[in-house]
Amino acid sequence: MELTIQYIVNALSLGGVYALVALGLAIVFSIFGFINFAHGELLTLFGYVLFYALSAGLPFGFAVILGLACAMACAVLMERVAFRPLRGANPVTLLVTSLAISGALQVMFQIGFGTRPKPLVMPGFLSGAFNVGSIYIGSAQAISIIVVALLAIGLNMFLNRTRFGLALLASAQDFDVAKLMGIRVNAIYATAFAISGLLAGVAALLWISMRGSVEPTMGFNPLVKAFVATIVGGMGSLTGAVVGGFFLGAFEVVLQILLPPDYQIFRDAIVLATLIAFLLFRPRGLIPAAAMPTK
Amino acid sequence: MLSVENLVVRYGPIEAVKGISFEVREGEIVSLLGPNGAGKTSTLAALMGLTTPQSGEVRLSGETIYGQGTARIVQRGMTLSPEGRRVFPRLSVEKNLLLGGMIRKDWRNPAVLERMYKRFPILAERRNQLAGTLSGGEQQMLAIARALMASPKMLLLDEPSLGIAPKIVAENFELIEQLRDEGMTILLVEQNVFQSLSISDRAYVLENGRIAASGNSMDMLNSELVRHSYLGVSDPMEAA
Ligand SMILES: Nc1ncnc2c1ncn2[C@@H]1O[C@H](COP(=O)(O)OP(=O)(O)O)[C@@H](O)[C@H]1O
Ligand SMILES: [Mg+2]
Predict the structure, then answer these.
(1) In Å, how far is B41's CA from the nearest CA of chain A?
(2) B165 is in which domain, residue-wise?
(3) Residue A221 main-chain phi, psi, to 5 deg
(4) Distance, CA of A276 to CA of B3 (rounded, Å)
(5) Does A293 have pLDDT greater than 50?
(6) Which of A216, A276, B177, B178 could form a disulfide with A109 if both were Cys (CB 3.0 to 4.6 A apart)?
């Protein structure tokens, strides 16, 4: 029983990070119809900003806020410089562009910060652990579960209850007609990217506190997992992204339990095989977007 | 209310609208008629700031709106029910309406919605249905209602009877007249020449991006030339 709860905690915290990254991907996908592969580099950027801010002696809270601001600014910049001029282009063009941005940023990180991982020591409240009864819970895990729950609920309320949320849904469906409603569509798009940057930053914070270091390619793994999560959950559906993220987290934990140690290296391969299975047999995911307009 | 001078709309090398001038006075219905490809939709898109401006002068209540962003123009009190209805198919009827009234400070005010539902009872019945599941006629109603939600002073309608059952077409024309009687100023783009001339005060005929004829709707309805070239019948009663 205790072991089961322990596994559930692990699954929730891992799945939560995937869910956050997947949410960021899904918001952009729901508008532009493409997966932004440069999203992973937003996580990396957050990591480096946090690393250098802490090295410079900034207080932790301030360093986190600075990192989040940089991730958001970088996301907005991507939209403005790369994606907006391509508006109306084939989603494949956008996807390839995002891959190019991803590659370019990775090279810049390597040149600027070196290829070796930089150890990032999190403050005690993130790296510690506590026991509830006989269950051992890492504080990063606990915080991750709480933060993801709050962000998912908050985002849902924001999208369903505010003028912005409705404007975003409209802009995603029909660019010109959204303008005819008096919506400043460019501002909406920029805000959507800013939100995806914020989600990436928070995800990076949780991700780094689990792995303990920063390196140029660190955004790749969560990006691929989140990509799988959005497909499993249903492309473009925000609820689907969260469901897919947790599904994937749980799936990985189950594999960890079931696979003998020698076979653990196949975990990612099995996850990707699941992706292929979904693409073949349930391409619209668990919660398809069309039937489920973010409600 | 709305005055347009020398409006030019160009798509690359194609000049779709070749310097047209017209006006819509307060409280009027003005028809903008003409065959497919004449440049009617392009004109409306330019008025709403949807196409990048070429040249010309557009004034709404005396103020220049030419070259301003669409959001600004909507704020100034002009809205468009676009060609082909263009409702947001994957949003509910109610959300479509809320979007129409989005620029209002009181956009969430249920009284505004209720007033619209009173005018369009069928929309009230379907308020929680996805707009994409409505019939063509209902979608057209929704598109007009959505354009009315912002309480515009100037309403642009692009082919509100396109692809709709004749019974609903008649209802639509009645609605447009009723709106005028309530004080709305309307620019009506139509291919349904006879019915448009019957309800409008004045009309312009657009052909190949130029204004080929204009005048009092009643006179045009009775003019041999217009009847032959644009109504395609010799007796307007046959067209009805
Ligand atoms: N987006 C566009 N790009 C290029 N040409 C266009 C575009 N929209 C319309 N046109 C052309 O402009 C002309 C006028 O079209 P339009 O304004 O839609 O006419 P109408 O509404 O009177 O049928 C047509 O020749 C059409 O092919
Ligand atoms: Mg047209």
Answers:
(1) 13
(2) 2-85+152-239
(3) -60, -55
(4) 59
(5) no
(6) A216
CA-to-CA dists, residue A151 to A144, A147, A239, B33, angstroms: 10, 6, 12, 53
Spell out the alpha helix ranges (H) of chain A. 2-32, 39-55, 60-78, 91-113, 124-127, 139-161, 163-173, 175-180, 185-211, 220-233, 238-258, 267-281
- pLDDT bucket at A96, cuts 50 / 70 / 90: very high
Per CB-CB distance under 8 Å, the chain B contacts of A182 are 70-71, 74-75, 102-103, 150
> Which residues between 153 and 192 in chain B have a beta carbon less than 8 angstroms from any beta carbon of chain A?
none
Chain CA centroid to CA B55, Å? 22
Q: Do A177 and B88 touch (CB under 8 A)?
A: yes
Q: How far is CA A73 from the centre of its chain?
A: 16
Please tell me the total count of domains within chain B.
1
* Chain segment B63-112, per-residue pLDDT in tens: 988 888 999 999 999 999 999 999 999 899 999 999 999 999 888 889 99
Token pair recorded at residue B239: 């067209």
Residue B72 and residue B76: Cα distance in Å, rounded?
6
pTM: predicted TM-score of the whole model, two decimal places: 0.82
Residue with CA at minimum distance from ligand 1 atom 21: B41
| Spatial CB neighbours of B66, under 8 Å, sequence gap ≥ 6 | B53, B56, B57, B58, B59
CATH number at B49 reads 3.40.50.300
DSSP assignment of B36-78:
TTSSHHHHHHHHTT-SPP-EEEEEETTEE-TT--HHHHHHTTE
Least confident of A56-60, A188-192, A207-211, B120-124: A207-211
Cβ contacts (< 8 Å) between A179 and chain B: which residues? Answer: 48-50, 69-71
Other beta carbons within 10 Å of A72:
22
Dist CA A291 CA B97 (whole Å):
20
**Is the CB of residue B16 below 6 angstroms from any atom belonging to ligand 1?**
yes
What is the model's pLDDT at position A289? 60
pLDDT tens digits for B110-124? 999 999 999 999 999
Using the predicted structure, report yes or no on whether residue A291 has a pLDDT greater than 50: no
Q: Which of B145, B148, B161 is nearest to B198 (CA)?
A: B161
Complex prediction ipTM: 0.90
Q: To 5 degrees, how large is the angle CA B213–CA B214–CA B220?
A: 95
pLDDT in tens, A28-57: 988 888 899 999 999 999 999 999 999 999
DSSP B7: E
Q: Is residue B79 part of a domain?
A: yes
In a domain, B135, yes or no: no
Mean pLDDT of B1-25: 93
Residue B213 is assigned to a structural domain of this protein: yes
pLDDT confidence of residue A156: 83
Which numeric CATH code is attached to A2-281? 1.10.3470
